[in-house]
């Protein structure tokens, strides 16, 4: 299963961060074998920064689909 998450208004909390609850939900989905991607209008650098701060690895579809970057 593929799970695509937007950042603003979905993944990020009011402080603009990935909450611990969202982080744990992503990790649980990944443990179950699901692919979790971030789909955002933001740049890859903005999305990757938030993922790094939360210690998460996910593929990113950024700039409204113009750039696709796979997690390493």
TrEMBL record:
Q: Which domain of life is it from?
A: Bacteria
Keywords, A to Z?
Answer: Hydrolase
SUPFAM superfamilies with a match to the protein in the record:
HAD-like
Q: Which InterPro entries match?
A: HAD-like_sf, HAD-SF_hydro_IIB, HAD_sf
Molecular functions (GO terms): hydrolase activity
What protein name applies here? HAD-IIB family hydrolase
Species assigned in the record: Paenibacillus rhizoplanae
